[in-house]
Task: inverse folding
DNA sequence: CGGCATCCAGCCGGATACTG
DNA sequence: CAGTATCCGGCTGGATGCCG
């Protein structure tokens, strides 16, 4: 779950790598984004909001985010169980960056895709 | 190299996922960052500037970035071969975002690491 | 010098099934 | 409901070696 330290090297000196590693997580950013839009979200809600994620992976993603202190988890002692997730303060500070990222992506995606096609084409010929 | 389309789902509708996928690439962001600091860089220079990357992986990373149109590659017809990489205009627009990301990381890393330790500790107990 | 080919290990995440 | 357990395929990236 928590990746194990990533052996030595620049990595230890460079905090970025650690963060980026999180973002490498296929669903982490999306989960943060979704949480940023909903205040408090139950596990099953997240499952519905992100249809393609399996419960196992969602669970793992949330646990990582929680471990990092980006997400907090609240359990209610009721039956059936109820658990709510929400962004922490720190988690919320990350949101604007992710949004910018998505905006950049939306702005440039067409060009990128086009360029990629071109590139592959040349590669073939 | 170019990951193959990622099967259907939100993914296709959501450009973000594509971009994030790139950033998931272990070295992509760092390469962009390094390129942003050096204008034109030769392959071997990059190898030195990022000691932990293997030539094979660096090559792949650069090719992906090139395919996306974030990096341009110039070959000089000389012996021994000389190849220079540099950011494209679009690539440069990405740099500020990466920088912000790194700044966020630097700002929050201590807290994150601490939180992670705590979390693991509880988990054990 | 600037790669690509090959090989190979580890991790990531998907599917499925099962619990308190 | 909210996960965990298990199994497993695929991709990523590291090491090494060769080639124009």
Result:
């Amino acid at each position: 779950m928590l990746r194990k330290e990533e052996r030595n090297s620049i990595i230890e000196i460079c905090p970025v790598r650690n963060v980026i590693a999180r973002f490498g997580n296929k669903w982490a950013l999306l989960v943060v984004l979704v949480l940023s839009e909903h205040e408090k979200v139950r596990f099953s809600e997240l499952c519905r909001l992100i249809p393609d994620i399996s419960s196992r992976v969602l669970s793992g993603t949330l646990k990582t985010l929680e471990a990092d202190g980006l997400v907090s988890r609240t359990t209610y002692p009721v039956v059936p169980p109820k658990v709510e997730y929400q962004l922490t303060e720190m988690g919320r500070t990350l949101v604007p960056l992710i949004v910018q990222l998505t905006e950049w992506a939306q702005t440039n995606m067409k060009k990128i895709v086009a360029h990629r096609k071109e590139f592959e084409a040349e590669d073939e010929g």
Q: What stands out?
A: The longest strand of chain B covers residues 71-76. Residues 1-12 of chain B have pLDDT under 50 and may be disordered. Residues 89-124 of chain B form the longest helix (36 residues).
